[in-house]
Every structure is written in C-alpha cells, then in structure tokens.
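From the shared-data thread, chain only:
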Amino acid sequence: MKTFVLKRFSNPAILKAMKQPLLLELLEPHADYFGRRGVTLHTKRGDAFDHDAVARVLMMPDETTPLSLVDDFFYVDEMATAVDMDRLLEALHSFPEVRKELGVGPTPADAATLVRLRAPLLLERVHAERHLRSRRSFTYFQSRDGHAAAFSVPPVSQLKSLERALDDTFGTCWRASTVCPCQPRRAG
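Structure, as tokens:
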C-alpha cells in the first residue's frame, strides 16, 4: 500500500477553504482519536476551529491512527484536485441529490469529501479509473517480422517441468501448501 502522506490536507489553507460542515462530518467519526492527539473538533460558540492543529495531526500519523481515517483521507486527498473534481461531477450524474448538495462554488476538497461521505464506492471507482488512464510504464515484446506466431499448447511434460521449477522457486501456497512465498523461508 502507498505511504500515508497527504499532499493537500496537510495544508491548513485547504482545510480553511472547505465548507466547515463537510470537514466536520468527515472528521467526526474520528473525534476520539483527535481528542487523544489534543485536538477538539467541537468548538464553543465564537471560538475558531483549529485547522492548523487538525493539519498537524494529519501530517504526523502514529500507530493509533484509525485505518478508517487513513482510508477516508487517502481517497479524499488524492481526489481533491480540479481535474478530479470534474471527473467526480461527471460521475455524479446518477446521484443528483449529492451533486445538488455540493451547492455553489465547492472546492475540489469539498467535492471529494462529499462524495466520500455520500457515495464512497463511487469515489473509489473514479480514483481507480484515474490510475487506469495514467499508465506509468509498459513493456512489450514483438516478433522480428511483426506478426504473431500461432500459439501451440506445450506438451504436458514441459508444463509439469515448468510447474516444478516455479514451485521450487516461489513455493506452493496457491495449492494450500504450508510453503508460502509471502513469508520468509526458514533455514534448514
């Protein structure tokens, strides 16, 4: 999994620009965590909300950081850009009530937050589709003459030999064996 580093939500200015009720709704399920970290989410009437303190907590997660907070802020932070806001607005055609709730002049952070709160699977889908479109690298091989050769199934003896070689190299956890390539091998 990607390291939890927030590009946008670690900036108090982004938090201040958001619609306060949306930010609070996103933070509310994690109020106890923020409280343990010295941040009060609910202010007394007339007191200013401490966006700087929230940003500090988000910048420095610790071992007690709830996984649900990491998930919420990972997706919202990743999708809080102008380009991704356009993608989210387009995807919201099947959720007109959510689009209407955004109101006038939402920030990209507002849009990503509201979609995370009201249609989290939609946000995750649009996020995944974004990564499908942004190819990082692609390696391919081609025959010398540019034509694909007809595929012929290798003989069973050759397949068994290949299977044994792969089993010796990677283990056989996929066959419910006790050997698993995901775990370190024991010596001896």
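Residues 174-188 have pLDDT under 50 and may be disordered.
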